[in-house]
Amino acid sequence: MPLPRNKASFASAATLAWCAALALLGALTLGSLAVGVSDVSWNTLWSDSEDEMVAQVLMYSRVPRTLALLLAGSSMAVAGLLMQMLARNHFVEPSTVGTEESATFGMMATMLVAPQWPVLAKMGVAAVCALGGSALFLAVLSRIRLRSAWIVPLVGLILAGVLDAMNTFVAYQFDMIQVLRAWHNGDFSAIVDGRYEMLWLSLAVTIVACLAADRFTLAGLGESFATNLGLNYRALVWQGLVVVALVTACVVVTVGSIPFVGLIVPNVVRLVMGDNVRRSVLWVALCGAGLTMACDLIGRLLIAPYEVPVGTVMGVVGSALFLMILLRQRRMARGG
Hints:
The protein is an all-alpha fold. The protein has helices at 5-34, 42-46, 53-87, 99-113, 119-142, 151-173, 177-184, 199-211, 213-219, 223-228, 233-254, 261-273, 277-302, 310-335.
């Protein structure tokens, strides 16, 4: 039985949108592989030349960096989407509610107490601290009666500021200010083969979150609604917090903090797809990877052969996009 015209046109439009998005992401991926200080010639790569430098640059530097950009951007965007559903507010993300600051504290604590621990153990401590910071934010939020659209992110920013001040104090006492500043600014310039594999864990956790998309959609509708449908709301919230904490810890340990990805991308996708997590989560992951890679390319081309960290470029681009979203919502509210 053929689809009605409106459904068939919608399906064809969605297919075209997916093809266009994948093509754009593929172009950004090729650009990421081609841009850099070393002159990479594709003809040399596929020829029988004895010069192996091109292949080594690609395999040990460019390919790991591109994969890290894809994994970090997509996972942080999905983590931001989950955080917004759990907090029931569209203006929060891991970098604005104290999650990233808590993960940074966990990393700093392990470097002071047990610097000989492997990276996986340090990441585990960072994930536990990130989970605690996210749970603290939701606990503080549950005690606030007035939960307007602006109070929730304001509470998160205050909590993040307090945790960041604590990290700065500890870092100052132990002469770790430079290390702390490195974690604050996401930078992929040091990513080579063997230094990004931790991000595959964030991909696995993100896939788990995608499979549970319907449950997180119900959690975003409130405790009473989810409970009436037979779901354990508290267990669902903790599952979401574990996903957010693990993703944040993996990204912070590997490349540092990447702001605005989890804030901008879900809001932009929500304007088109709505609040259904199952329908929008793949778009959020795709757009998060594309935005992160685009900002990385801007940073590498802006003052070449030097580069601007992704965190700095993302801060500028993300703040501009966020202001545009706020102004658009304000115009829509006035129009209504």
